[in-house]
Design brief:
rod-shaped, single chain, two-stranded antiparallel ribbon, two-stranded antiparallel sheet, mainly alpha
Length: 170
């Protein structure tokens, strides 16, 4: 029990020292980057947690001040600039088809071609020539030998051979 507590305390201290700051004698935790909100746009989540532009220029500050007044005084370009401060793309831009399919098909065809080249290389340099036992003459001699030996006469090859007429049964 004591050993478990000691290991737990050491582990907690090691974790606390890696994710904390010492400020005026108090331990202050600093947030990890993955815990902070970030801008992420998606069509089914219309409002991201943060605006697209977080650090505004002086022109953008002036535009934000003008936004607080009547919207009728804003021009179309100013409204678009205000939208671009908050969002990166419109729904039409997000739903616009991309050319990613060309990359996918190109990559697939590349790997199919590379696989074909590897197959040809192994066929030529690794596997060597086809054995002589695959020739038609050898197969015919082997079949005749099996028939002469009456190999598997009940259900096999010999059951399909007519030994009196010397031909295959019909």
């Amino acid at each position: 029990m004591l050993a478990c507590r000691a290991i737990h305390a050491v582990g907690r201290r090691a974790f606390a020292s890696s994710s904390s700051l010492l400020a005026h004698g108090h331990v202050v935790s600093k947030p990890e980057p993955w815990t902070l909100p970030s801008y992420y746009e998606q069509t089914d989540i219309p409002l991201p947690e943060l605006p697209y532009v977080t650090e505004l220029t002086s022109a953008q500050h002036a535009l934000k001040e003008k936004e607080k007044g009547p919207w009728g005084s804003l021009t179309k370009e100013e409204k678009i600039d205000l939208y671009r401060i908050k969002f990166h793309r419109t729904y039409a831009e997000m739903n616009k088809p991309t050319s990613e399919w060309k990359t996918v098909i190109g990559g697939t065809l590349f790997f199919i071609g590379a696989t074909g080249l590897i197959y040809l290389w192994t066929r030529i340099y690794v596997m060597g020539p086809i054995p002589h036992t695959f020739s038609e003459e050898w197969v015919a001699m082997q079949t005749q030998r099996m028939l002469d030996m009456h190999v598997n006469p009940i259900t096999g090859i010999s059951s399909h051979w007519d030994y009196e007429k010397k031909e295959w049964k019909k």
